[in-house]
Amino acid sequence: MYKISLLLALVFMGLGSWAQPELTDKEKAYRDSIAALNESNEQMAQAQEAFNEGISKFQAKNYAGAISSYIKAIELAPDFIDAYYNKAVAENEYQKYENAAATLDKLIKMEASGKAHFQRALAYQGMKDYAKSEEDYIAATKMDANNEKVWYNYGTLMFTQKDYKSAKEKFKKAISIKNDFAFAYNDLGSCYRMMKLYPEAIAEYEKAAKYNPNLPFVLNNIGSVYLKMKKYPEAIMSYNRAISIDANFHLAYNNRGVVLMEQGKYQEALNDFEKCISIKDDYAPAYNNRGTAHHKLEDYKNAVKSFTKAISLDPNYASAYCNRGISKEMLRNDSGACADWAKARELGSDAAAAYQSNCQ
After folding, report:
1. pTM for the complete prediction?
2. Is the pLDDT of residue 35 over 80?
């Protein structure tokens, strides 16, 4: 009896451990769909993790790393719309404009949006393909009409092409949406400055300074307009305001030096140019201006050195060639002066032509 029971037990155990019921086709399909869903969920989780890593890297301004993370997210989830968009934004920030445009081409085919057209407009603008850039800005304004950034950047495109009237209208539209948009007020002021409407320019720059008092370039722009108006005390005051915000704002020192030279204060001007150079030693205009200050102080040898440095930084600096020629003439280096004036004239300097007339 014991043997029989043991045998029956072994039989039952065997059936429970090894025998598998045959699944129907419907049951097999359900089993496979569950497995595929689990695999898909796992891939999506990994894609989301890569996407989040991309955001962290982007915030740290590690644009190359962010792009790599977004690529990984897209490989795991080919329809991951946000990953395509963020990848394009990172590519634009990294100045990989052709890559950004290609990414956005794919995204817009999948899902067109105002923000996608806006980013592609930025990419084309970076590539200097202004016609395509404008097409995308127009599309973006239609799809996202209340986005002040779209109108503002559309204005910068027009400003780049020296269409100041059109740029002005775009900046005004941006301001109508965001009435404390300091950058738009600043660039609107620059439109008026380029159109030689100086009081209007100052009014817009002052609004920019009002809404964001921590932008030294705005105050520098105000000074530059006052300089054009020959209102030298006001210009000096504006440059001083810029420097009070940022003691290392090199442009304000350079431009204040120009005003001081206009006032005949050559040594003070020289000090400002030296300060500018100490902050940014590759800024060619400061060397050219320093050379002019040396020349006015009758230090012709140091003038030549400064002009030569400006030319080394910018080989196409026509004014520096012309000015160096004038200083060389004072040092009785007539052949050198004539050579510099010839080069300046070749580069488009009208002033050099008058000096060159003295050359044989």
Report:
1. 0.82
2. no
